[in-house]
Structure formats: C-alpha cells, structure tokens
C-alpha cells in the first residue's frame, strides 16, 4: 500500500482567518493493486479526543489494504480556534463535518471511488462527527460505524463534570474533557475565532443540540449503522450507545446493530478493524433509488434523499425542523408529509423542497396542496407549480400534515368541529385508565392525567366522538384530534405522546380496568414540551377516522399513551394533565376536526409561480440504497434458578470461571471445624455438570483465582497455599518463605507479569512473582484482606476489616490504607469489585455498599449506597458487570441487584443459606455458591444452554430452506450481553427456526433431507411457566421510604394482587411475622400490588405498585407504612 499526505482547501462557510489556507490535512492510503480504471470502495476514519489523524489511520490501515479499499483519515477543525489542539477537541463541530465532506470530494476527484460504497467510521469523539456527518448527508454513505462515541453532547457535558461545588459530580467525571467540551461550545471573537468564554448547555442550548446525534435519529432510517461500545466505558458512558440505538430504532431503520464488548474506553472490540469493515462491506448504495419513507430532522439547509429543507444560516435564527413522516405513493401520485417547526423565528422563511424527478413524479403541471394544522384543525388548499423539477412548500410555525396530489382539481371541503357543548354537540366521551388505580373511574373528572414512569405508561386517557353528524356521502380529506394541556412538569422535559385507535367498546363511567386493547400501529407521535405546555396539541388521525367511516361499528375512540423511549440513565418520569370533555372551560375540551367533501370540486387557474430556491449543500450526487429484509429478532427465553451441584456438609466459599465453559469452586468444613479436608469442584461444560475432588489439606480453603484453564491458586486455613498447573488434576504446596500459620482468605492476580497476591488475617500480604515462591509484604495495617480487585496491571484494591480499603499501585510491593465513613456502626468489608482503576464498589456488614469514582486519587472519596438495604444483611461478595450493572450477595441468601450503579434492589434468591461468592457472565447468566454446599445457576434452562449443532438441511416450505449448520455460538464473542435484546445481528439470520429444528413432526410439509447429528431436547412449545410476587411491609419510622435499622416489619397486613392486565381479578394474602408476603404460581403478565394499611397507619403514596411477572422469576414490591402524627391540645377552664 502507498501512503500519501495532502492538505485540502476547506469549503466551510464559517472559517476563521487562515483556516482555508491551513486547510484539512489528510493521510491517504492507496491499497496494493489499486487500479485507477476500477471503482474502489472508500472508508473515511475519524479520530478520538486528544488524538490525531494518525491514530485513526493506523487503526484501519491494515484491514483496509487487506480489502483493497481506499482509506482517508482527515484532521478535523472545531468552531473555536484552540490551536495547537484544534483537531483534538472538535466535539462534532460543523467545521469537522465539512472536513469529512471536503475529504470525500477530494477522494472522488483524484481517485476512482465507488460512489455506492463510501463508508464512514469514527472512534470516541470521532464517532460524534461520524454520526453528525452521516445525519447531514445520509445519501452519501453506504454505512457508518460509531465506536465508543457519545450520542448527546448536553448529557456528555453534564456527565463529565468533576465535583466542584456547586456542581454535582457526573457519571463519568473528567475535568479536562469537560473543559474541552465547554471551550468548543463557547463564544469566540472574529476573525480568528479565539475563545471568549466557555459555555454550558443552559447558555448555548442550540449549540449543544446540533452536536447531539440523537437529535437526528430519524436521518439514519436508510443509513446502515453499527454501534460498538465497551461495557465499562468511563469516558463515554455506555448509555450513549443504547440511547442512540433506541432512538434510531424508533424509525424502523434498514439496518441497525449494537455490539457490546468487555472493557473500558480505549479497549476495542476483538479484531475491531476487520470486523467493522466486514460489517460495512455488506451494505452499498443503489444509484437512482429514492426510499418511499424519508423522515428527517435538521437545523441547517440540507437535502435528505428526495426531500430537502431551505432555512437560514444566520445563527440568530437557528432552530430545528422535524419531519417525522415523509412518504410518497407512485401509483396514486400523492405525497404525505408531517412537519413540525415550533420555534420558527419571526420574519424567517423556511421551505420544504420535493425533488419530483427523483421519485418519478411529473415535473410539470399543477399539484394540489392540502395543509392541516394538527393543533388548531385549520385546513387550507392551494395549488403549486413545479419549478426546475421541484415543489417548494412553505413551512409555517406549528405542526402540520401536508398532502400533495398531482391534480388540478380542488375539492370543495366542509369542516366539522366536534367538541362537547359546541353547537349542542353531546357525543364526546372520555375517561382515563391507570395502572396504579385500575379500579378507579375518571369519567366525571375535569382533567385527565397522562403519566409515564420512565418507560412505563401509567395513566392513559380514552377519548371518543360520535360521528353520526357526518353526511352519508362524506369523503374524508383530513382529521385532527386536539387536546388542551392544562399542566405539565416544572422542567424542560418533553413527553413522547402517541395516539392509537382502541379496538373494543368502553363506557366512560364504567371504564375502570378497561384493557388497553389498541391498534398495533400508532396514528401519530408528538413530543410535547413542558415549557410550551398550556395550549392545544394536535395529532393527525386521518387514517383512523377513515377506517371508522368504512365500518362505523369499529369506532371505539382513541387512547393517548406516554412512554419514554430512552434508557434509564436518560429517562424521565412525567405527569401531564389535559382538559376533559367535562372541563368547566368549554374552550379547553378535546376537539375532533373533520375535513370532508361530498364530491364537488373547482379547477382554478394557478397564479402562484414559486421561485426556484438554491440547491442545498452539498452538490454530490445522491446514491440511494435498497432496503434489506428485516432480520429476525432473537426470542426472549424464560430465566430461572437451577441447582447444578450439591455437596452436603461442604460450605462453598469461592467460585471462579476462566471462560464460559471452564470454572472452579473451592470450600470445605465450617470455620472452626478441625478436618475434614477442603473440597474442590470443576466444570468444563459451562456449569451444567461438576466433578468433585478432595484436597490434601487440614481444613477449609477460602481464596481461589486462576490465570488460565490449567493454572490456579487456592488459599485457606493454617497458611495453606496450593497451586495446580494441570487444571486441578494435581496440586502442590507452594513455598511460603515467610513463616505464617494463620488464615488466608483471598487470592488475586495483579495482571502484571505473573504476580499473585494472597490476603491474610494480619499485617502481611503474601506476594509471588513466579507463582511458587511467596514472601510476606507488610501492608501497614493489622487487618484482613477478604477480597482483591485488580482493574489494571499492577493496581489492586483489597476489601478489609474495620471499614478499610487498601490499595497498591506498584504490583503489591507497597500498600496505602483508606478509611471510609459508614452510616451505621463500624464493620468489615468482605467484597470488592472494580470496573476501572478509578471506579470500585465495596460491600460488607450491615448492608453496606459504597462506591468510589476517584479511586486512584491521593485520597479517594467513597459514597454510601445503602438507603434501602436492611442492616441485618452482611454482604460477602459484590461483582459488577460494568459501570452500571452488578450483584451483591450475602447472609440469608440475600441477592441485591443494581442496573444504574447506585440503586440496589432485592433480587429473587434460590436459597436461604449464606451466599459467599458469585460469578457473573451477564445480568441474566450467573452462578452463586452457598454455605449449604450448593451451586446455583440463574439463566435460561427451558432450552439447552448451548445451541446444538446439526448437519442436516431441512426444507420447511416450497420456497424456504433452513440450514442447521450455522449456529449462534459466535454471539458470546461478538455481543457478550446485549445482542439478544438490542441487536438483530447477522448471526441471528443463520440460526434455524424453532419449528424446523424442534418440531419436525409438527409441520407436514417438512421433508428433512438428512439426519441431524444432534437433536435439541426442548420442545417447540414448552409448557408456560409461572412466576411469583413477593415483598415486605414495614413501619417507615423516619419516613424516608426505606427500611432502616430498627424499623419493624408489620405482620397481618392485607396485600392485594390484581391482574394480569387486561383482567382485574384480585387475590389477597396476609404478611407473616417477618412482614413478608408471597403470591405463588402467578401467571406471567402485568399486575398491580397494593397494601391495605392497618388502623393508625397510612401509605405515603396511595398508588398501587405495578409489577411485571415473568416466568420462573419473582417480582418484588415492598411497602413502607407510616403512622399519623397525633396532637393533643390542653383543656382550658373557663
């Protein structure tokens, strides 16, 4: 391959002085064997924060050359001149996007680039620019890969804030990065763009929003997008990847994939360069194809396939225009567009442009435009004349539905406005249903609540109008449902609100418990903004009402549903109120506006002659793509606990897996028991079966760690340390050169060379560099090192007695001691888990869990995470899967889970024995070992844990052949945790269907052509499993919502379970002496649970709790009850 360095003149309009002379520096690689007469794919690679083009070039040079692709890695510019670090902190600036465009144009000018195979890759900060460049010019790129990048700059700024009062510390504090973001979004002086002042989101909201890819999620509908992200990224929090996936997925994209992998920022997906290019290689643009569905969002002039927007470039008038729906029908020669511009500045012109030639429509003669104001119901018809093959449609402030027809006939329309009390109309009904109060009726209320609790809709209004007033020959042209919002949250939240048709009858005064039986497809989606709340907000319901006119018996009204489509990190809980048909102010009541015709029309002579507008930048030829077939979703399988091994009389103390197949556990008799010797078990089939071995020791063994499947160390009673180098077949006593006969509790591997650490009960930490000769190192404190965590080579932490944490940064040679503060009495830490060198969790006695996010600082600060954990629980281990998810285990079979890294909730446990250790592969796949000699696995057991491999080809139908040779065995490598939920990966397309594999006799047309070498044992239709609902009711003495030390359990309290939705059958039980209740054999579904307070008690939030019951799992719902405060006044004599 040949490397070329060039400087390309910039075409960006907002250059600072000397910017164009400096230009964009690009390193180019021309592949070996390049032939100028052959069109060659091009990949453009963008670098991370504090990197240069050379990093991006190096990342992909070998893989690009192996594929014979051209490679270009540009330096990037920001809006602010922060030389000499200009390219290192561009933060998605528009200038950096033009660097991408200039690079692309240069490559197409001087090389034979295959226009149908241009790909864009970005890493970290470069992923931010890659996202934004593809969103601005989606028709140019055949695929995009974003690795470890942010999806919302406003959240990234907030999350990187260090702890500097009055600011609170972010999720991923990084002072240097935070300042870089604020500098690049700051104000600057002309003509050199020198920084004047750094700015935060509240000071430059639009600047941050236009650099946030999630704002442009609609633009990726036809851009194949691969998202890669490490699970423990402490620079760009992992929720950014999940948010972007969810936001893009809302628009039903052609190809979208999210791949998680272990590690932190800077770690890369295995063989990432070849994997990424192979993924992109599948996609290419098909010239001349204009996708029928074309949604987009923009804040600058742009052309998205066949639809463009003309808007000012003046920063003072910058704002967003959203087009959530844009479709055309060739046969009918009609176009439907929904456009929303709620912030159109005064004296500002914004136009949508339709490229008629690109969609195959006539480029001459008259078009009819019908415009419906979704909020007010205002309707207008006008004629348009194409100019230079384009239609220009002026955008007005608000939300509008536009319908364009190729015709010179304008129907004469009539508007019918339906509102309770208007002109004597009395055909409106409305009420609401509540997941918290399913038996409460709201038919007589003046206001109806719309509420969501993160992703769960809680309260949903139902609205229905009698349509008998429409003439029998009415032909509907448009319909809008508009509701008046009385109130909303006192913040800047926006509520995603969808409208659906209901599928069954209901009565507004008997609607309690009515099921949300709704149409599968929503009619419209709006984002309702709290700051602009008190007005009518409307929805296009034309298609729903048209279906009712065809079949009047199907009119069961509308349901309004709220749900937040982001992850828990970004999610919001909202409560909005709309006016009902009973509202005292008639002008606030729900309105249904119907625009119809009875067949008459006029044919006026068009008088408007639109002037052709400027062609939006860029001028590159669009290269559309075909829409690939949808990939099948991986089914969600039931998960439960399974006892996989039992050794009566043995107390298992430690478990460790080297990989998903090979694992070990060690234990022995009780602490003070003299003999018998320790026990050791091993599995090589992923934990399904275990072999047991008796060790030559004088008592129990407590610590266990392995370097690989052959080499392990165990430590325990009487200073015993054993090593195996053959996978546990034989063990040898190591050479402990410092005399010690006490207890040893833990084994750690520092990750630097072959250093092994063993924790003791005294001041010594035993250390070996060769794994055989151990020396005692004075740790400086007379304490117990119960557990080690080594997040980077040479850096280890230990959980210790006396609320101490010890740390080494020199491979165990010296140790620092840190005292943490406990909310309760002083106790011991037994478990520690780190996700990176700064972020560690410790857990121990009295329900204590604490976290540090600055662990490598000179004096780390620790934050308690214990408010809802009873103090009678002692945690023996804590293991974090990533920076957000993990489990802690302890006495009485306690298992607590976190999904956000800070809030811990009880998790269903299979045992009441003390759990001393656990091994996590994913949040739905982990093992625990308990004091009763049992090994438990939580995961999928209704089907084999490993996909069986078959060699037969079975013909399922006359046109489809399912090949059973390809299995999903690679999924564990490519997507350790999230593929099944988030990613319809290519792997899934190779997996044979359940029918073809599991039930060959159930399909008469199936004719297997060969006998499979292995047959799955599961049936295709397993018997449905049941779950349970459990919890505790307690007296919340200090009214903090959590059960603290000394707060008593309440026995004899009635607990009621209702469901499953849509049913409302009730089942009751009483709490036991320990305050606990349990509903067994509960069918999967959505339920509500309510506790009836006994006399003198009340619930602070009267709402029942919503729970989702899954098969073979327990849903938890606890209740905190308070007592009334009684006051007595003295009796005064007269």
Automatic annotation (TrEMBL):
One of its GO terms (biological process) is photosynthesis. It comes from Candidatus Anoxymicrobium japonicum. Residues 639-930 form the Photosynthesis system II assembly factor Ycf48/Hcf136-like domain. SUPFAM superfamilies: alpha/beta-Hydrolases, Hypothetical protein PA1324, Oligoxyloglucan reducing end-specific cellobiohydrolase. Its main location: secreted. Residues 428-573 form the Carbohydrate-binding module family domain. It is found in: Secreted. It comes from the Bacteria. NCBIfam families: DNRLRE_dom (NF033679). Residues 1029-1112 form the SD-repeat containing protein B domain. Residues 605-637, 967-1024 are annotated as: Disordered. This is DNRLRE domain-containing protein. One of its GO terms (cellular component) is photosystem II. Keywords: Photosynthesis, Photosystem II, Secreted, Signal. The keyword Transit peptide does not apply.
């Amino acid at each position: 391959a040949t490397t070329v360095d060039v400087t390309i003149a910039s075409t960006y309009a907002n250059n600072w002085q000397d910017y164009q002379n400096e230009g964009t520096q690009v390193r180019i690689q021309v592949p070996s064997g390049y032939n100028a007469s052959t069109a060659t794919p091009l990949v453009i690679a963008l670098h991370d924060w504090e990197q240069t083009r050379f990093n991006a070039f190096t990342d992909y040079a070998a893989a690009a050359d192996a594929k014979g692709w051209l490679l270009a890695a540009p330096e990037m510019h920001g809006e602010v001149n922060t030389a000499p670090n200009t390219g290192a902190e561009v933060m998605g600036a528009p200038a950096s996007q033009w660097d991408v465009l200039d690079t692309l144009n240069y490559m197409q000018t001087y090389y034979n680039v295959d226009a149908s195979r241009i790909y864009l890759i970005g890493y970290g900060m470069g992923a931010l620019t890659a996202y934004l460049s593809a969103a601005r010019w989606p028709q140019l790129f055949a695929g995009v890969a974003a690795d470890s990048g942010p999806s919302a700059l406003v959240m990234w700024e907030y999350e990187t804030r260090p702890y500097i009062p009055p600011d609170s510390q972010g999720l991923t504090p990084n002072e240097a990065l935070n300042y870089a973001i604020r500098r690049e979004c700051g104000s600057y002086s002309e003509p050199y763009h020198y920084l004047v002042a750094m700015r935060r989101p509240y000071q430059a909201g639009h600047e941050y929003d236009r650099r946030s890819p999630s704002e442009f999620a609609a633009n990726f509908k036809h851009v194949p997008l691969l998202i890669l992200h490490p699970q423990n990224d402490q620079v760009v929090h992992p929720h950014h990847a999940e948010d972007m996936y969810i936001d893009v997925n809302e628009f039903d994209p052609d190809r979208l994939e999210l791949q998680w992998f272990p590690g932190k920022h800077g770690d890369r997906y295995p063989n990432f360069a070849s994997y990424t290019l192979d993924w992109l290689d599948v996609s290419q643009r098909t010239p001349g194809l204009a996708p029928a569905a074309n949604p987009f969002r923009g804040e600058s002039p742009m052309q998205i396939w066949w639809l463009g927007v003309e808007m000012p470039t003046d920063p003072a008038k910058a704002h967003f225009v959203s087009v959530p729906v844009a479709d055309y029908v060739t046969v009918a020669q009609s176009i439907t567009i929904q456009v929303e511009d709620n912030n159109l500045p005064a004296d500002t012109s914004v136009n949508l442009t339709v490229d008629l030639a690109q969609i195959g429509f006539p480029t001459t003669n008259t078009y009819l435009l019908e415009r419906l104001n979704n909020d007010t119901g205002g309707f207008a018809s006008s004629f348009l004349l194409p100019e230079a093959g384009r239609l220009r449609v002026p955008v007005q402030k608000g939300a509008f539905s536009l319908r364009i027809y190729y015709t010179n006939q304008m129907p004469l329309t009539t508007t019918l406005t339906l509102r309770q009390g208007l002109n004597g109309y009395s055909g409106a009904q409305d009420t609401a249903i509540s997941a918290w109060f399913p038996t409460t009726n709201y038919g007589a209320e003046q206001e109806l609540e719309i509420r969501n609790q993160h992703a769960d809709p809680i309260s949903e209004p139902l609205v229905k109008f009698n349509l008998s007033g429409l003439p029998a020959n009415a032909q509907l042209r448009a319909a809008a449902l508009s509701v008046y919002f009385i109130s909303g949250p006192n913040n800047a939240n926006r509520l995603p609100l969808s409208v659906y048709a209901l599928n069954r009858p209901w009565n507004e005064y008997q609607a309690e418990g009515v099921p949300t039986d709704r149409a599968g497809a929503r009619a419209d989606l709006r984002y309702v903004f709290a700051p602009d709340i008190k007005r009518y907000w409307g929805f296009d319901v034309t298609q729903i009402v048209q279906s009712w006119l065809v079949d009047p018996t199907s009119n069961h009204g509308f349901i309004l549903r709220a749900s937040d489509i982001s992850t828990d990190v970004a999610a919001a809980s909202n409560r909005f109120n709309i006016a009902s048909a009973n509202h005292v102010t008639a002008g606030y009541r729900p309105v249904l506006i119907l625009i119809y015709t009875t067949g008459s029309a006029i044919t006026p002579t068009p008088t408007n002659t639109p002037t052709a507008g400027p062609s939006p930048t860029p001028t590159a030829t669009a290269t559309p793509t075909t829409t690939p077939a949808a990939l099948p979703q991986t089914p969600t399988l039931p998960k439960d606990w399974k006892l996989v091994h039992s050794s009566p009389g043995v107390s298992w103390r430690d478990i460790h897996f080297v990989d998903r197949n090979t694992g070990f556990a060690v234990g022995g008799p009780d602490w003070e028991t003299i003999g018998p010797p320790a026990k050791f078990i091993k599995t090589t089939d992923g934990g399904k079966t275990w072999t047991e071995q008796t060790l030559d020791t004088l008592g129990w063994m407590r610590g266990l760690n392995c370097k690989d499947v052959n080499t392990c160390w165990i430590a325990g009673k009487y200073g015993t340390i054993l090593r195996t180098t053959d996978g546990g077949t034989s063990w040898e006593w190591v050479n402990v050169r410092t005399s010690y006969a006490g207890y040893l509790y833990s084994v750690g591997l520092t990750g630097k060379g072959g250093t092994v650490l063993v924790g003791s009960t005294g001041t010594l930490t035993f250390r070996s560099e060769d794994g055989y000769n151990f020396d005692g190192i004075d740790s400086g404190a007379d304490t117990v090192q119960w557990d080690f965590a080594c997040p980077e080579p040479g850096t280890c932490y230990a959980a210790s007695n006396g609320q101490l944490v010890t740390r080494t940064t020199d491979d165990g040679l010296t140790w620092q001691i840190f005292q943490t503060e406990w909310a309760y009495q002083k106790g011991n830490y037994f478990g520690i888990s780190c996700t990176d060198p700064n972020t560690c969790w410790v857990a121990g006695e009295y329900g204590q869990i604490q976290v540090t996010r600055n662990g490598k600082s000179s004096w780390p600060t620790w934050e308690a995470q214990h408010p809802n954990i009873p103090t009678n629980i002692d945690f023996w281990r804590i293991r974090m899967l990533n920076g957000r998810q993990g489990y802690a285990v302890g006495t009485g079979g306690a298992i607590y889970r976190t999904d956000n890294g800070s809030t811990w909730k009880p998790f269903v446990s299979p045992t009441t024995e003390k759990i001393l250790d656990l091994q996590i592969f994913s949040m739905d796949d982990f093992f625990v070992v308990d004091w009763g000699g049992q090994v438990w696995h939580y995961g999928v057991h209704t089907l084999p844990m490993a996909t069986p491999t078959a060699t037969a080809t079975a013909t399922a139908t006359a046109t489809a052949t399912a090949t059973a040779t390809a299995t999903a065995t690679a999924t564990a490598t490519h997507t350790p945790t999230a593929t099944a939920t988030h990613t319809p990966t290519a792997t899934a397309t190779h997996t044979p269907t359940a029918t073809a594999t599991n039930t060959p006799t159930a399909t008469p047309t199936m004719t297997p052509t060969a006998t499979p070498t292995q047959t799955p044992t599961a049936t295709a239709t397993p018997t449905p499993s049941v779950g349970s609902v459990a919890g505790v009711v307690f007296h919340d003495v200090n009214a903090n919502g959590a059960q603290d030390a000394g707060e008593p359990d309440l026995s004899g309290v009635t607990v009621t379970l209702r469901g499953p939705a849509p049913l409302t059958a009730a089942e009751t039980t009483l709490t036991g002496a320990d305050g606990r209740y349990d509903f067994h054999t509960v069918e999967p579904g959505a339920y509500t649970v309510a506790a009836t307070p006994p006399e003198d008690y009340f619930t602070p939030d009267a709402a029942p709790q919503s729970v989702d019951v899954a098969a073979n799992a327990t849903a938890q719902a606890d209740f905190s009850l308070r007592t009334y405060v009684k006051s007595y006044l003295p009796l005064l004599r007269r």
